[in-house]
Amino acid sequence: MLDPKYLRSDIEDTAARLKRRGFNLDVDAFKQMEETRKSLQVRTQELQNERNVRSKSIGKAKAAGEDIQPLLAEVEQLKNELHSAEEALSILLKDIAAFCQGIPNLPDTSVPEGKDENDNLEVSRWGEPRQFDFDVKDHVDISQGLNNGLDFESGVKLSGSRFVVMRGQIARLNRAIAQFMLDVHTQENGYQEMYVPYLVNEASLFGTGQLPKFGEDLFHTKPATEEGQGLSLIPTAEVPLTNLARDEILDEATLPVKMTAYTPCFRSEAGSYGRDTRGLIRNHQFDKVELVQLVKPDASFDALEALTGHAEMILQRLELPYRKVLLCTGDMGFGACKTYDLEVWLPAQDTYREISSCSNMLDFQARRMQARYRNKDTNKPELLHTLNGSGLAVGRTLVAILENYQQADGSVKVPEALLPYMGGLTELTPAG
RNA sequence: GGAGAGGUGGGUGAGUGGCUGAAACCAGUUCCCUGCUAAGGAACCAUACGCAUUACGCGUAUCGAGGGUUCGAAUCCCUCCCUCUCCGCCA
């Protein structure tokens, strides 16, 4: 959510900045709602004040043993007037809140303007895509040669399309990747490892911005005996991790808070029918090691660079070629003001594919969830800035390793960095 | 699942219809005293919104959430959420 004060005082400027990301702010509607709100609020408050004053005098009169009846009669009409004013105001306030909650974050000035991923700006490349002297296979074909280590048919049988069963050496590799990432982030990058719920409530989803607008991207559960949507499966650990700060006032000395968690992520992928239907790239369930930072406002842009670097470190240690992309205004998520994507090289697709997305949300999420810290200088609570990034998506890392480390005979070399996690296994073989 | 208790400001915790936006204590900030890794005293110390803006200014709302009763509710009633205790069940 944007700062309502800023929204009110600089609506034109806000609209202009939102336009950069293709969002049309209905300035007139907002102005009109605000104007009505002001007069309605003043009127309501006047009535409330009068009620309070009169009620007090009734109390005094009663204590003094006077006759209250005439006073009560006077107040009768006031009551009705106040009632309808309060009701009208509350409806309007809800409308305004809904309007404000639907506005995305303002893009940072350093973010290039653009419509979609084609307008993203490549910032850097790391590593050289390997030259193959044989026909490269994609991860699906590779896995079939490895004792059917990625079993999509079983995934369909158990759950449906976009689910997978991993077995044997590939399942082991998947686990090794996650362990490796967690170890790097906790031991070298200063993140605290967290274990969090995979089912979260509505307030949490509102806090990070999934609700109310993007509920269709989520899987909602509901206890058999109850009404309503119940809890929802997390689409990313960003939701539980960031919401740890919800309704909290953190001690400034504890900042920055750096947390990491390895969790499954669940996404309905509504609206992506037909996209990436083959393989592991786009599944309803995938594992991810997430990085979240809660920082003081003046530190968030530096933190974004650092956090992105932490995710890059994983790719470098795995010796996977990648590029770093600054997302354009049109490709950024709802709550982000600046986002770097890391795209890993996939030889079978002959292209770079997203494997991490690192964003600075400024105070956008913090305001929604009232996540604050006490400023030592002013002694006042102020909104935190929140950041998150994948460090990395485990499933796509698995894909990248299978494809980049494949060998002519169909086997796959285990990356150096993962050897300590593979129990002596140095390559994945047809024995699986 | 059954029976009970409870949810108050940064923290602990008073408060069962009007003078309580909320005692007291702790923490915090400032000042006074004190010449010393101590102690004492005083003041200040929630958030949001609105009006006003030369003001130490005024008003409204907020005591888990949402409804209701009442001239008036932290205080009474209803629903929901959460916490705790005992019993049952269970990885």
Task: Give your account of this protein's structure.
The chain has 432 residues and is an alpha+beta fold. It folds into 2 domains: 26-101, Serine-tRNA synthetase, tRNA binding domain (Helix Hairpins, Orthogonal Bundle); 117-428, BirA Bifunctional Protein, domain 2 (2-Layer Sandwich), CATH 3.30.930. Helix content is 39%, strand content 19%. It contains 12 helices and 17 strands. The chain has helices at residues 4-9, 11-19, 27-63, 69-101, 139-145, 152-158, 168-187, 202-208, 238-243, 300-317, 364-369, 394-404; strands spanning 121-126, 150-151, 165-166, 192-194, 199-200, 232-233, 249-251, 257-266, 285-295, 322-326, 338-346, 351-360, 372-374, 381-383, 385-393, 412-413, 427-428. The strands form 5 sheets. An 8-stranded mixed sheet has the order 1-10-11-12-15-9-8-4. A 3-stranded mixed sheet has the order 7-13-14, with no helix packed on it. A two-stranded antiparallel sheet has the order 2-3. A hairpin with a 6-residue loop joins strand 13 (372-374) and strand 14. The two termini are 49 Å apart. The relative contact order is 0.14. The mean pLDDT is 91.
Largest sheet: 8 strands, mixed
Strand order of the main beta sheet, please? 1-10-11-12-15-9-8-4
Q: Report how far the terminal alpha carbons are from each other.
A: 49 Å
Query: What percent of residues adopt helix (DSSP H or I)?
Result: 25-40%
Helical segment count: 12
Q: List segments where confidence is low: pLDDT < 50 over at least 5 consecutive residues.
A: none
Report the β-strand fraction as a percent range. Answer: 15-25%
Kindly report the average pLDDT value. Answer: 91
Query: Which geometry do the CA atoms define?
Result: elongated
What's the SSE pattern?
HHHHEHEHEHEEHEHEEEHEEEHEEEHEE
| Full CATH superfamily name of the largest domain | Bira Bifunctional Protein, Domain 2
The structural domain count equals 2
Radius of gyration: 27 Å
Tally of DSSP β-strands: 17
The CATH topology assignment of the largest domain is BirA Bifunctional Protein, domain 2
Write the CATH architecture name of the largest domain. Answer: 2-Layer Sandwich
